[in-house]
């Protein structure tokens, strides 16, 4: 992707998630004028907050009735 951006085969990119986070300070993405890098939070909006609250409430109900939780992080996978 870096080569494609440098050679203008891709007009531009907005990157919010990266293989390594935070993105290394010496990553070439920082210096590409046709690239915008955000700190993996570009999707935050009112709906994101509402969904988080709904999951919290659902998991509180499930926890109280000893049922499996939803949206559980798999630490082996990393998300």
List low-pLDDT spans.
Answer: none
Structural class: alpha+beta
Major sheet strand order: 1-2
What best-fitting shape do the alpha-carbon axes yield? elongated
- N-to-C order of helices and strands: HEEH
Count up the domains: 2
| Strand segment count | 2
What is the residue-averaged pLDDT?
90
Query: Biggest sheet: strands, sense, closure?
Result: 2 strands, parallel
Counting DSSP H or I runs of 4 or more residues, the number of helices is 2
Give a short summary of the structure.
30% of the residues lie in helices and 8% in strands. The chain is an alpha+beta fold. The chain has two domains: 1-41, no CATH class; 44-79.
Descriptors:
79 residues, alpha+beta, 2 domains, two-stranded parallel sheet, 2 helices, 30% helix, elongated
Please characterize this protein's 3D structure.
With 79 residues, the chain is α+β, with helices and mostly antiparallel strands. The protein has 2 domains: 41 residues, no CATH class; 36 residues. It has 2 helices and 2 strands; from the N terminus they run αββα. It has a two-stranded parallel sheet with strand order 1-2. The two termini are 24 Å apart. The mean pLDDT is 90.
Q: What is the fold's blueprint, element by element?
A:
Blueprint: H1 2-6, E1 13-15, E2 35-37, H2 46-64
Parallel strand pairs: 1-2
